Amino acid sequence: MNLRNWHVESAVAGLVIVATTLAWQRGVAFPERLLAGDVRGAAAAVTPWVAALAKWLSFGAMSIGNRVAERAELRARWASLAGVPENAHEVDCAHLLVWHVVGGQLIAGAAQATAGAWDGLVVGLLFALYVPVWRKRIWRRLYPLQDRPAGA
Questions:
Q1: Helix/strand/coil percentages in the chain, nearest 5
Q2: Does residue 101 contact residue 58 with C-beta atoms inside 8 Å?
Q3: CA angle in degrees (0–180, nearest 5) for 84-89-92
Q4: Where are the chain's structural domains?
Q5: pLDDT tens, 57-83?
């Protein structure tokens, strides 16, 4: 199996999410609470980890959505180079995907921070910096998308 960029991005995001969840995890861990018969306490101890998994999966969805949007932009560029009329079936609001995901994560992070769960804000910042800073300013400068399809 070849190590791909998305593998590394997912691993880094997972490490950031786990580290921030560990940093703000309070109290006794899940097994001790459950063994002591404290079901509510056990559920409260598991909740941050369920939220961490949800955040990691949301990061993956945003990462995939960004790659799909990049390829759609590239196909449109190739079509215009070939003189093909614009495809009427392309999604004209695809460029808004990132802003909706990032905005939603920042708002959710701010709501979690007001409840004392600062890890949500840290993950929101990770989401906010992923596309505009990492994907567009760093990664695509190092590895730009091809201006032409192979063999053209």
A1: 75, 0, 25
A2: yes
A3: 100
A4: 5-142
A5: 888 888 888 888 888 778 777 777 777
Q: Is the pLDDT assigned to residue 99 strictly greater than 50?
A: yes
* CB 118 within 8 Å of CB 24: yes
Q: How far apart are CA 14 and CA 59, in angstroms?
A: 9
CA-CA distances (angstroms) from residue 6 to 12, 20, 114?
10, 21, 32
55 close to 119: Cβ distance less than 8 angstroms: no
Q: Which residues contact 23 (CB under 8 A, 6 or more apart)?
A: 119
The residue written with tokens 């791909």 in the block is 4
CB 63 within 8 A of CB 9: yes
Instruction: Please enumerate in sequence order all residues whose Cβ is within 8 A of that of 9, keeping only pairs 6 or more positions apart, or say none.
Output: 63, 130, 134
The pTM of the whole model exceeds 0.85: no
